[in-house]
Each structure stands twice: as structure tokens, then as C-alpha cells.
Design goal:
Largest sheet: 7 strands, antiparallel
CATH superfamily: NADH Oxidase
Strand content: 15-25%
Structural class: alpha+beta
CATH class: Alpha Beta
Number of domains: 1
Radius of gyration: 19 Å
CATH topology: NADH Oxidase
């Protein structure tokens, strides 16, 4: 079927001969979407200070399941900081023209991305996080801060119309809403970008699954949603930036099983 063609490797030879925007020396798009100068920025817990997420990796992999029911417990700000760092946290930026990752062109993060392009922006619909007002936020990975965007009251009607009675989204402590800015990848990879972006999205969400398990929480990735309505909730144009993935996160129901003595 023709819909499968973009998943194949046949286009790489054509790409080698293509005059991409990078090869034309067109300036690269920003590594992070700008935020309003007067925006309220919220400090997150630095990765060096994390006390959460200490579960051994082998145990998180064994326990990983898609979780669709959550408790009413909130996440702490440290737990949210850990989840954001685990999915888009910074490892390195370029330092100069001689660096493979020269400044302003690429970053290394806690997840892999084709050409280190990292085309995603992370938005959050916060329901229950200690110390945060309920509403919409955006993660700024270059600063490891949150940017407050909209109070819940401003979008309540849109959320109601969009989610309906979908339990996991209502019950979660926070909904991760990932948008893509395709040109970040297209600048380097042109027609190969759909495949690379699809692969990158998988890397991103799998880290959220594992990080959530490590703090006694869980998630369930969602690819079926009302495109226009969810784009409107995070206020993106739907063309140059649009939502590609959702993932509600909440605390796991604690087991009450015990052994009689």
C-alpha cells in the first residue's frame, strides 16, 4: 500500500542528492519555540537534585503497562520535573562552529532524535500538581522551566467538548500534549521527515512510560483525538505546529493484597 512507503529506507539515496535547506545554508529554525517576554516562568527541580525515580531500570521495564485508571493523588513538583526531564531534558548544546552540535543548530537530550533535531514542544494540561494552578503550561527544555499559558477556566468548555467523559484524561494528574514543529526536522531531512518524526515520537513517549513507572505512576499513549480542538486548547496554528500525541499521567492504584499470618 502506498501509505507504507514513507516507512521504507528507499528515499535515503534520493536524500543524499537533495539540496536541503541545511545544505543551502538556510538558517536553522529555533531549538525552542519563543515564549512571551512577560510570561510567568516557574522553576523546576534540577535533575541533580532528584530524589525520585530511583527504581532500577529492569524493574520499571517489567512493570510497564498502559495505565488508564488513576488515583486522586496529585503529583509533586519534583515528580513532574523528573517526567519532563526524562522526556525532553537537556544533556548538551553545541559550543561553537567547530562542534558537531554547533550552537543554535542541535541539542542532545534524554531521548534520541534524528539529527538531534528534536521537533517537539511539550504542553501540559495540569489537573493536580502540588504548587501549580490548574491550567495549560509549556515546558522550556533549554531553561528547564515551565511557562504558564492559560488558566483552566479559560479552556474549561473546550476541554469538556474535547474529552467528553473519557476517564483517563479526566482522572489524570496531568496530560502531556506533544506538538510537532515539522520544519525543525524538514530543515535537515526534507521528505524523510515524516518517518523520522514518527520514530522520534516513539522514543519520547516510551521514556514517559518508564519514568512514570519509576515514581509509582503510569500513562497510556493516545493517538486518536480531535485534532482541531486539541490544537485549540494549546493555541497552535495546526499547520506549522500541531498536536501529534497525548499521554495522561497519574498515580497508580496501590495494591491492597496482603499475606495472612
Amino acid at each position: 500500500m502506498r501509505y507504507r512507503e514513507f516507512l521504507k529506507a528507499d528515499l535515503w539515496e534520493e536524500w543524499e542528492r537533495l539540496e536541503t535547506d541545511q545544505r543551502k545554508q538556510v538558517p536553522p529554525p529555533p531549538l525552542q519555540k519563543p515564549y512571551p517576554e512577560d510570561a510567568a516562568l516557574i522553576d523546576l527541580v534540577a535533575s541533580a537534585d532528584f530524589t525520585v525515580g530511583q527504581m532500577p531500570l529492569i524493574e520499571t521495564i517489567r512493570r510497564r503497562r498502559s495505565l488508564r485508571q488513576f488515583t486522586a493523588d496529585p503529583l509533586t513538583l519534583e515528580e513532574l520535573s523528573f517526567l519532563l526531564w526524562a522526556t525532553q531534558g537537556m544533556s548538551k548544546t553545541g559550543t561553537g562552529p567547530g562542534d558537531v552540535l554547533w550552537k543554535g543548530v542541535a541539542t542532545l537530550r534524554t531521548v534520541p532524535s534524528g539529527g538531534a533535531r528534536h521537533p517537539f514542544e511539550t504542553y501540559l494540561l495540569v489537573n493536580r500538581v502540588e504548587g501549580l494552578e490548574r491550567g495549560v503550561y509549556r515546558y522550556l527544555p533549554l531553561l528547564h522551566k515551565l511557562c504558564f499559558l492559560r488558566a483552566y477556566a479559560e479552556i474549561a468548555d473546550m476541554v469538556e467538548e474535547t474529552w467528553g467523559s473519557r476517564g483517563s484524561l479526566w482522572e489524570s494528574a496531568v496530560v502531556f500534549i506533544w506538538t510537532v514543529i515539522p520544519y525543525r526536522t524538514e530543515w535537515r531531512y526534507s521528505m524523510l521527515s515524516p518517518k523520522i518524526i514518527a520514530l522520534d515520537a516513539g522514543h519520547l513517549c516510551q521514556n514517559l512510560y518508564l519514568a512514570s513507572e519509576a515514581i509509582g505512576a503510569g500513562t497510556c499513549a493516545i493517538a486518536a483525538y480531535d485534532q482541531k480542538r486539541v490544537d485549540a486548547i494549546v493555541n497552535v496554528d495546526g499547520e506549522e505546529e500541531f498536536v501529534v500525541y497525548l499521554a495522561p499521567v497519574g498515580k497508580r492504584v496501590r495494591s491492597t493484597n496482603c499475606t495472612a499470618k
